[in-house]
Amino acid sequence: NFSLEGRTYVVMGVANKRSIAWGIAQSLHNAGARLVFTYANERFEKPVRDLAATLDRDDSLFYECDVTSDEAIEQTFENIKNDVGVIHGLAHCIAFAKREELSGEFLNTSREGFALAQDISAFSLAAIARSAKDLMTEGGSILTLTYLGGERVVENYNVMGVAKASLDATMRYLANDLGKYGVRVNAISAGPIRTVSAKGVGDFNAILKEIEERSPLRKPVTKEEVGDTAYFLMSDLSRGVTGEIIHVDSGYNIMG
Ligand code: 0WD
Q1: What does the pLDDT read at residue 202?
Q2: Residues 6+ apart with CB under 8 A from 137
Q3: Alpha helix (H) residue ranges in the chain
Q4: N or C: lower Cβ tally within 10 Å for the chain?
Q5: Which residue range forms the structural domain that includes residue 165?
Q6: Is pLDDT above 80 for 13?
Q7: For residues 191 and 149, what is the distance between their CA atoms, to the nearest angstrom?
Q8: Total domain count for the chain?
């Protein structure tokens, strides 16, 4: 049975309807899951609640969680535990880098910008996993979103590429730590999708065009395609998969 009925999943990082996190939320919802949303600050509360209201069920829950704060993370999962008890998975769809460091040369990255990108985009997964694991008493699946720029040099991706490399390694170490609790940890490496975060990356249009011209499928991926792979990773269909990066990128990563 690969329905997610009777299960609860936390989705972190919905900013608006274009967010990849929203594509994931929709796929999990369509599979029958109950959803718990977290957002960075009160600015996102209404947009997230309005989006969730378009789903045909009304038991979603909402929490503010700025992942730069250990206290906020601990408190959020304490609250989720009190309100729902058990969770079956979590999607970490969060990243941040200073806009001025997402173009030009990586060489110009500042100490502070480097640390900030690592903190929000990579360390947060470890901090969240530590708190979320206590709610995954029936086993679980943790999923993060990464990008090819962590495996190779992608023009302009710079400090975020280094943060994604760190996120990928964080994901693997967590997979090893949490496997004994029946918790799997994986990443989806998504192809470029036009979102608020993507707009911060220099010459994003050129990256998209390259996918259209050179990827095996000759078209950019959609957040719905990423969402359906997320559903697979959250379901028991993927029960033998952990520590893995699945590329949902129209096959672009195989091209030389
Ligand atoms: O092409 C793309 N869009 C790709 C994105 C390709 C491959 C991977 N990804 C990754 C991103 O790096 C990120 O990890 O997917 C993830 C989701 O990104 P997205 O859907 O492209 O972007 P967006 O809709 O902007 O959501 C990212 C959200 C933030 O939105 P804002 O507008 O605030 O930047 O990350 C959240 C926030 O909701 N976020 C935080 N959440 C909690 N605490 C924090 C924070 N401190 N900072 C950012």
Answers
A1: 86
A2: 86
A3: 20-30, 45-52, 70-84, 111-118, 124-132, 158-178, 196-199, 204-214, 223-234
A4: C
A5: 8-249
A6: yes
A7: 10
A8: 1
Tallying the residues shown for the chain, one arrives at 256
147 assigned to active site: yes
Residue matched to tokens 């959250």: 234
Q: Is the overall model pTM greater than 0.90, yes or no? A: yes
Query: For residue 255, is it within any domain?
Result: no
Please, which residues have CB within 8 angstroms of residue 84's CB and are 6 or more apart in sequence?
Answer: 8, 34, 36, 61, 135
Asked, for residue 2, whether it belongs to a domain, the answer is no
**Pick from 168, 124, 128, 127: nearest CA to 146:** 168
**Does 21 map to a domain?**
yes
Closest atom of ligand 1 to CA, residue 144: 14
Catalytic residue from among 39, 63, 157, 252: 157
Q: What is the position in ligand 1's atom list of the atom closest to the CA of 18?
A: 24
Q: Does some domain include residue 203?
A: yes
- 152 Cα–ligand 1 center, Å: 20
CA of 94 to the centre of ligand 1 (A): 4
Q: Across residues 82-96, what is the average pLDDT?
A: 98
CATH of the domain at 218: 3.40.50.720
Residue 86, number of CB atoms within 10 A of its CB: 13
Distance 1 CA to ligand 1 centre (A): 32
